[in-house]
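Supplementary Data S3. Sequence and structure tokens for construct A.
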Amino acid sequence: MKTDFDLVDGRMTVMEALKKMNHVETKSLLVDKRHEDDEYGMLLLSDVAKKVLATDRSPDRVNVYEIMSKPVLSVNSSMDIRYCARYFERFGLSRSPVIDNGKVVGIISYTDMVLKGILHFEHDYSDD
């Protein structure tokens, strides 16, 4: 899991959100809740390519909320990495916010699962 992620307001324009983006390696922006009973959203860079660039829309005139996914399927930080991989496969996810106690604490992707998850498991098993 990456604990560095970008959390933006859905009312921002796509251009404002991209300029605010500090963690390009996550390839996504998490969209904050508007209020306590709301859900988090997610904007993938591929969404911007497909829904703004490919349709010749101006990123200065499109708001994040218009093209984001919401609600997003999330995982808990205590979820076993094997179940997380199955969850991603079952629901066609490429990345997901990690939420504990109603707050985003990170973001997980297949890359994190493979490079950090498998290597972590290998280290645990090699100690036997």
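Construct B, processed identically:
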Amino acid sequence: MTEPVKLGIVGLGRWAKVLTRAGQKSNKFKIVAGYSRSEEKRQEFQDEFGIPSQPDMQTLLSDPEMKGVILTVPNEHHLPVADEVAKAGKYVYTEKPIANTLQNGLAMEALQ
């Protein structure tokens, strides 16, 4: 059996908790770190799931084992966060809507 893909998660609100609970039942992927601008949410996430939360995006993205990042931030923030994730050489996962405008959605599609 192959090892689960290691992922980070950005935005640690309600939807991040739903996806993290689901992920804990999966043998395909494993959420290994989280990040939120809110220190309170970072601590809550860490306490609830036993998954480390990082103090900033750079620390989250510096993990060479992490292959991608799930975005659970508001969709108007998807493009700038996805850009940062892509520039770090990580895959980006987000749900619909992909962005708040067609232009931003197309820009996200073009990220490398």
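Residues 5-109 form a domain with the Rossmann fold fold (CATH 3.40.50.720). The two ends are 30 Å apart (CA to CA).
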